[in-house]
Write a structure and sequence with these properties.
The structure holds two protein chains of two kinds. Chain A is an alpha+beta fold. Chain A is about 20% helix and about 40% strand. The N and C termini of chain A lie far apart (about 55 Å). Chain A has helices spanning about 5-20, 75-90, 125-140, 200-215, 235-240, 240-245, 250-255, 315-320, 345-350, 405-410, and strands at about 25-40, 45-60, 65-70, 145-160, 165-185, 185-195, 220, 225-230, 275, 300-305, 305, 340, 360-370, 375-390, 395-400, 400-405, 415, 420-425, 430-435, 440-445. Chain A is built from ten helices and 20 strands. Chain B has helices spanning about 5-15, 75-95, 125-140, 210-215, 215-235, 250-260, 265-270, 335-340, 375-380, 430-435; strands at about 20-40, 40-60, 60-70, 105-110, 145-165, 170-190, 195-205, 235, 240-245, 295-300, 320-325, 330, 350, 360, 365-370, 385-390, 390-395, 405-410, 410-415, 420-425, 425-430, 440, 450-455, 460-470, 475-480. By secondary structure, chain B is of the alpha+beta class. Helix content of chain B is about 25%, strand content about 40%. The N and C termini of chain B lie far apart (about 60 Å). In chain B, the strands form five sheets. In chain B, strands 1, 2, 3, 4, 5, 6 and 7 form a seven-stranded mixed β-sheet that branches. A seven-stranded mixed β-sheet of chain B has the order 8-20-19-16-9-25-22. Chain B has a six-stranded mixed β-sheet with strand order 12-11-10-15-24-23, with helices on one face. Chain B is globular. Classes of the chains: A alpha+beta, B alpha+beta. Chains A and B meet through strand 1, strand 2, strand 3, helix 2 and helix 3 of A and strand 1, strand 2, strand 3, helix 2 and helix 3 of B. Strand 3 (about 65-70) of chain A pairs parallel with strand 2 of chain B, so a sheet runs across the interface.
Chain lengths: ~450, ~475
Amino acid sequence: MVSTDDIAAIFDTSSKKLTELGFSDFVLSLNSRDRSQLRFADNQFTVAKNWLEVSLSVFAVKHNKTVGFTVNDLRLEAIEKVIKNVDVLAKALPSNPNFLGISEGPFSYPVIDQILDPAFDDFTDKAVDLVQGAINKAESEGVKRSAGVLYWEKEANYLTSSNGANGSYMATSYEFTIRSFVDSKSSGQGVSVGRLASTMDFEKAGEEAGQIAKMSVGGENGKPGKYNVILSPTVAADIIAATPGAANPFYIEIGFSWLKDKLGEQIGPEFLSVYDDALLPNALGSRPFDDEGHPTGRNPIIENGIFKGMIHNTSTAKKAGTTSTGNAGIIAPQNSNIYFEQGDHSFEELMELCKGKPTLYITSNWYTRFTSYVDGIFSTIPRDGMFLIENGEISKPVRELRISDNMLNIFKNIKALGKELQQIKWWEVYTPTFIPAVLIEDVNITAATS
Amino acid sequence: MTVPVDWLEKAIEEGNKLGVSYIEARYVRKSVNTTLLKNGIPEIGAIDRGSGIGIRVLKNGGMGFASFNELNKENMEKAVNFAVKMAEATGEKRKRKIVFSEEEVNEAKYSALGEKGKRPEEVDPEEKLKRLMNLDKIITEVKTGAMIPFRFFQTQDETETKMLITSEGTRIESEIDRIHLFGILTAVNPATGRKEQMMIQKGKAGGYESFDYWNIEEYFEQQAKLLSKIVTEAKPAPKGTIDYVVGPNVIGIMCHENQGHPSEGDRILGREGAQAGESYLNKEMLGQKIGSEHVNIVDDPTLPGSYGYYLYDDEGVKARPRYLQKEGVFYEMLHNRESAAFMETKSTGAARAVNFDREPIPRMANTYLEPGDYTKEELIEDVKLGVLMYNFTEWNIDDRRYQSKYVGLEAYLIENGEIKHRVARPVIEITTPKLWSSVDAVGKKELLEFDAATCGKGEPMQGVPVYHGGSFMRIREVLVR
């Protein structure tokens, strides 16, 4: 970790150099992290890793020309050299009419509960046994082998800006995924993520992975057609949370979002409300300030099914005639945690609602790709256990199907939400998302024709 | 700035002192320059300067990896100690110990640099920007029947300097320049509101002479006209059992997804099971027929100027072309030294790590279908009902690489051996065995083309530069619902 004196010197030297060269606005962010990983496959540890990383990221503006740099050689002369390079770059650029300023401080920042846990100071020796416990648990459910990963991390973040923002925070985190196999086609996945060691439940993740894998044994190829679909929180965090994730003005401007001109419209059912919430305790995306040093908060994206608002930095907010939501990234606004308000149905009740209709329960998915982002046309592939639901209960495992539909359709067709929220982040889901199981009507399911 | 060889040697020494059976130290420095253009406006010019050392060790049958970017004794010792300690602790629990395949010890130095005056750091930022902004101008000024209101481009140039030293005596030093251009265009038919999107990816080892090699201005004009025609003219695609003639872009992605990934040794062993997945292929299937005799798929890192170019992999193994499928037979896998040892064979020189802070794992480089003898006309002339599909938009494949989907962008109806009107979004949703066994003819070498892509795999994610390509091929009797 970098010392406080070193950080002060880096910020001071960088600020002076940028000011001397005529940069009027700038934000300096220094991140230092000690991150470790334990990977396993076939019930055995495959590799243990550690990363000691420190880097300085800078966003700077000169005559309304916007430049940025990241450097991990933090010797003062090395930083000064890169600043000279970005000055040359700034001279080459025309003015950026999309830049409308960075947030004006000074600020006081929210205190977020449960983002730092001293238990991670001394965690390496415990990691092997904790992961082994999850592998054993999955094995006790009857699986042959498990693969997965555990990350644990301590990070420190420091920020200062030309406009009076000054802040720092420290945080810890863990991310655990386990995927268990009875055979190559019968698998299940479990996820456990958070910021406090006391909230780890790897054995539960192992148990879930093992149970789904076991239940999926003997699955036959499913038939294409229209189905009601119950998505696990893992799948919902990918394809249902994609819609609030598309409420980003940068994505809309480049044609990467299906929400253009839909602000104020009813895009989902009335019982659905979704927030970008950077203040959630024990949540991986929580942070007190954004990349401009603006304080973060809880911002509505969808309320009662109506598209209420987007995430913003200072520039996108001014352009839209509103104020920053504290979601600045270096280039584009970025989500913190996407938070779905829970519904009131148990999983059994969700299945009960599907009586008389062909219904699938999909536990995991990957490889979501688009024919058209602007229209929301996409497909994604279920993986791990997938089940037919008949007469209100799971009847048999099925395989080899694909969801091929439209993001706006599936969001509009949400029929019910489960009452248990789960925090999801894994290889396929980058934005930490709190979401329950979701029931959707009339989803288009396709399959390879031969 | 020179390579800090002393720190690499100190790390090897430290590992040897701690009794490792193998240790490697790999230094990587990347100098990256990026420009983003959003609807004609430069959103940001960015510079990324990063360097550091990655350490990988084997001890007690376990593997440890650690990296650090501040080069000092404390960090070096901490990294080596973590890697050794965790290799030992995890190795103790392994039933099957990790070892590396025996390979030749190599010492080499090579480079792939841009032409004089065209290297990333030699070209003036203003010149780079002007050329990029001109591409946007071309798109907006070309006369078509459609509008292209959403345009996003990113150019990235990089110089990557590497040095690998191992406890076995391998020393490989390299320097590679790369250029990458990414774009997404959205065309709208003003009369109907119909929209179509196109992704553009160009990449190459080398400098800014690549823009001339691609005839980039002409290429952008063609793509704008093409997208506009699709959004204004394309009619519904045919259904039923039809033939497909697919072009280099579609063959390339099929070679990559339906043959390259399932041939990766670590996937076959289950090491990527919780991330990129496993494979429908296995060791016992080597030598078995998995496609028609017309299918020859090669992965060759040594193609000069290619986006996936390297001469020695990140374990110091000499690169060579690999036949993944030869005359329809599953011929060989993509191995690093770990997966090769588990399969009791030799590495195929496929170990790649995208930076100093990533471990080398089996990856593709430049994957393509070897050309055959047919002209495009010959491929089409006896198709009664089919689709000629030049390129794709949406695609995906399951994590065993068994059932895949490709949606076409530029595509035409073929009727009684003749190319007719454009068709919209034709779909091929097909299993891998059906795909390769249904190929009955392949286009000649004059039709061979490559596209650049970034291949994602690993945990943490490692996006590596690759080429994929082919000429044209005919796929018989595909059922379209």
